[in-house]
């Protein structure tokens, strides 16, 4: 029998449609005997309940959105696993949206959500995002938002981050302890809070050891691999070039290694390298890469947990707070003496 509906099941069993519906939500109002009868017939007729039908009646989509700048960065792919581990348990679908580091794209995606396509949003903002107007507009329509990793610090909602300033300090201090005196900081954005905080920590470590941080030590890179290679090669070819490099995002690591290879600059002999990275290949690079490893899975899981706790409440009100999950320094050959 094709196109079996809940109404047909109810008619066959001489029950109300609402009773049959409650069976599929495992309502405590329905007896075990009735549940068994309904489920047995549903199995016999190959009836599959439609989760979207009940969701529409409740004005819920049973779907959350995860808005990311990219997925090439291993941090985000691991964070998605953490998010989905919670979503599956809650019976929700997860839709992934990519902004490709474009504010305009991010704004368009969030505007689309205002129609009720999703029940809530987890977002890590693009490197062009310096205003939160498009985010607050969506929140005002009753769609809760939780930030993770890249956040808007002024937005009145929950933010899941790592200890970026402390991690920047830790990265610079490690290079200094390994003998570095001229440390370059590579970034893809001067406006992102994580970039600013990591840079602040780096500068604080240098100041604590009475070492300067020159304007030229802040190196602004792009999303283009060829451009980044040229930028880093130019940095390394300077007369007073760095003897230590901090890559504040994972995508810059390959350009640093390739630039050193093309210029025949030994790592860690002539320049030591540390990167904020979750890439699983870090231990097998040549030389193996020293990293500040973020707790990506835990951050994704925590962000999802906070969002779902909010969705359980009628008003979906989130506290304006920052929850910090610490990162870890993993030392390997790229910073060896």
TrEMBL record:
Gene3D superfamilies: 3.40.50.2300, lambda repressor-like DNA-binding domains (1.10.260.40). Pfam families: LacI (PF00356), Peripla_BP_3 (PF13377). One of its GO terms (molecular function) is transcription cis-regulatory region binding. InterPro entries: HTH_LacI (IPR000843), LacI/GalR-like_sensor (IPR046335), Lambda_DNA-bd_dom_sf (IPR010982), Peripla_BP_I (IPR028082). Residues 4-58 form the HTH lacI-type domain. The keyword DNA-binding applies. PANTHER family: HTH-TYPE TRANSCRIPTIONAL REGULATOR GALS, LACI-RELATED TRANSCRIPTIONAL REPRESSOR. This is LacI family transcriptional regulator. It comes from Paraflavitalea soli.
């Amino acid at each position: 029998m094709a196109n079996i509906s809940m109404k047909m099941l109810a008619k066959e069993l001489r029950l109300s449609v609402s009773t049959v519906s409650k069976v599929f939500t495992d309502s405590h109002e329905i007896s075990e005997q009735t549940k068994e009868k309904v489920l047995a017939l549903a199995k016999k007729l190959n009836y599959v309940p439609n989760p979207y039908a009940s969701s529409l009646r409740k004005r819920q989509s049973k779907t959350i959105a995860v808005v990311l700048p990219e997925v090439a960065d291993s941090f985000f792919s691991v964070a998605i696993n953490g998010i989905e581990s919670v979503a599956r348990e809650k019976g929700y679908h997860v839709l992934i949206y990519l902004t490709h580091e474009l504010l305009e794209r991010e704004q368009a995606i969030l505007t689309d959500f205002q129609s009720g396509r999703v029940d809530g949003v987890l977002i890590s903002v693009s490197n062009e995002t310096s205003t939160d107007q498009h985010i607050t507009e969506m929140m005002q329509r009753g769609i809760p938002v939780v930030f993770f990793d890249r956040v808007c610090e002024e937005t009145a909602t929950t933010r899941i981050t790592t200890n970026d300033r402390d991690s920047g300090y830790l990265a610079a201090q490690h290079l200094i302890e390994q003998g570095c005196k001229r440390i370059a900081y590579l970034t893809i954005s001067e406006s992102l809070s994580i970039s600013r905080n990591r840079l602040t920590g780096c500068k604080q470590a240098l100041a604590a050891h009475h070492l300067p941080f020159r304007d030229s030590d802040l190196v602004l890179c792009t999303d283009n691999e060829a451009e980044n290679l040229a930028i880093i090669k130019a940095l390394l070819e300077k007369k007073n070039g760095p003897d230590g490099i901090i890559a504040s995002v994972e995508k810059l690591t390959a350009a640093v290694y390739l630039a050193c290879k093309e210029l025949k600059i030994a790592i860690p002999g002539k320049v030591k390298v540390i990167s904020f990275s979750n890439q699983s290949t870090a231990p097998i690079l040549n030389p193996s890469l020293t990293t500040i490893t973020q707790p990506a899975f835990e951050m994704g899981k925590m962000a999802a947990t906070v969002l779902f706790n909010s969705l359980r409440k009628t008003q979906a009100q989130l506290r304006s707070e920052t929850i910090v999950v610490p990162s870890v320094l993993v030392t390997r050959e790229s910073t060896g003496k």
